[in-house]
Amino acid sequence: MKIEKLHHVAIICSDYQKSKKFYTGILGFAIDKEIYREERKSYKLDLSLNGQYLIELFSFPKPPSRPSRPEARGLRHIAFGVSNLSETIDYLKSKKIAVEEVRIDEFTNKQFTFIADPDDLPIEFYEL
Q1: Cα–Cα distance list, 24 to 5, 19, 21, 28 (Å)
Q2: CB 77 within 8 A of CB 100
Q3: Which of 2, 13, 50, 118 is deepest in the core (most CB within 10 A)?
Q4: How many CB atoms lie within 10 A of CB 44?
Q5: Using alpha carbons only, what angle is made at residue 94 by residues 124 and 55, rounded to the nearest 5 degrees?
Q6: Beta-carbon neighbour count of residue 85 at 10 Å?
Q7: What pLDDT digit, counting tens, does each position of 69-88 carry?
Q8: What order do you get walking across the sheet with 42-49 strand by strand?
């Protein structure tokens, strides 16, 4: 078996319009396709970044909560590479997004930080 690349990450949100605005309006993802599945009472939003399909955003009626912090088992976070972490932080703060303190990767000495999406999903920004 040979895996070629990461195809996408699926996220189930609690408030579709709020999450759609966050991922498109704040993080800058482009909408590739948006469909409403009447039989499931569910939206499916395909999102891309720089022409690469990355996120499927789903809504479902009353999805159960999933523990995220502290360090719960399972998928931990999504990480995006950025060229300038300071500029990224300034931008996020201008959009009223709470940004954690900058950390240093002990192995690469690169800077990174975290924010949370509208459902408290951890999102990392890692300076390339």
Answers
A1: 23, 8, 5, 5
A2: no
A3: 13
A4: 15
A5: 40
A6: 18
A7: 767 777 789 999 999 999 99
A8: 9-13, 52-59, 42-49, 30-37
Q: Is residue 95 packed enough to be buried (19+ CB in 10 Å), middle (13-18) or exposed (0-12)? A: exposed
- Domains, the chain, in order of start with CATH, read 1-62 (3.10.180.10), 76-128 (3.10.180.10)
CA 77 – CA 124 distance, rounded (Å): 7
- Which residue, 51, 54, 107, is CA-closest to 80? 54
Residues lower than pLDDT 50 in the chain:
none
Contact between 89 and 113 under an 8 Å Cβ cutoff? The reply is yes
CA–CA separation, 29 and 78 (whole Å): 14
pTM comes to 0.88
